[in-house]
Design brief:
95 residues, mainly alpha, 4 helices, binds zinc ion
């Protein structure tokens, strides 16, 4: 499924350069697959995703990872279902 956050799939959502990957807003063991099905993902360049230094990428940056999951849930609640439905589907709430 297409991401539901932006329609500009070729542009890194953080820096505007050419996107090279998809970041799943909710990631980890079970979350990634559900996130994929629900379109909770954003286009990213490799630097902003997981190859840049830690202050400028999502992964291994604890606050960025937390905010990623919060945005994922916010988008779910805006376009897909209720908080209770999110909690049931993903096993917890990030908001
Ligand atoms: Zn980028
Ligand atoms: Zn990612």
């Amino acid at each position: 499924m297409q991401g539901i956050v932006t329609e500009y799939n070729d542009i890194c959502i953080f820096c505007g350069r050419q996107a090279e990957a998809e970041h799943h807003l909710i990631f980890g063991t079970a979350g990634r697959e559900l996130s994929d099905k629900d379109g909770l993902k954003v286009p990213v360049c490799n630097n902003c995703h997981n190859m840049g230094d830690k202050l400028h990428r999502i992964h291994d940056n604890p606050m960025a990872e937390r905010l990623s999951k919060m945005l994922g849930q916010a988008m779910f609640e805006a376009k897909i279902g209720s908080r209770e439905e999110f909690r049931k589907r993903y096993g917890r709430s990030y908001l």
